[in-house]
Amino acid sequence: MIKNSEKIFKDFEHGLTPSWQAGGVVHHLRGVGDAAGKIAVALGVNPDFSKKIGLLHDIKLPQQADAGRSHALLGFDYFKKYDYRLAKVVARHMTPIDLDFWRMHENHIFKNVLFSRTADYERIYNMIRNNDITDLDLIQHVADFVVVSEEKGYRFSTMEARRDEMLARGRDPYDAGLKLVLKEKLDTRIRKRGGGGVYEVLGISK
Asked: Of 4, 107, 135, 154, whose CB is crowded by the most CB atoms within 10 A?
């Protein structure tokens, strides 16, 4: 169990180059951590643990280019010595599929070859729709998506609107489509507990 997550985060923050500091990665990680904690409360999941994952999920991003590997799997290799459950969620925050599949196809996914073809997107879309996804995976994906959307200043308030905006611009909507499947799964689980869904939890107007 990671007990010193704040120290790990502070060491990461202090080690950032000026360009990475200016890029907003610290703000992003804190934002995802806060959103993940709020969703976890609504879902009945440990909010401290969920917030911790959100805070740490991208800390290997600055090493990605030099390592030639996905920061998600770099994060897994780093965190597995502390907490294997946290490490698996970090590994899967880019695509919530089987970890062995991820490793096997890392070269394709990392270079955006696998995700650049509609047929492959649909294959992974169906894997996500048909397979059970853990609460922690759902929380991190949806929290990350919402925070990134806010940071990039998209002119919409929901994932559905992002998908429609991408379609209107002639861009590939499949990433938004994949996230929508995850949001729908998360909404269902929150509503079973009497909540109103992700947007209500995070105060997002529809």
From this structure: 135
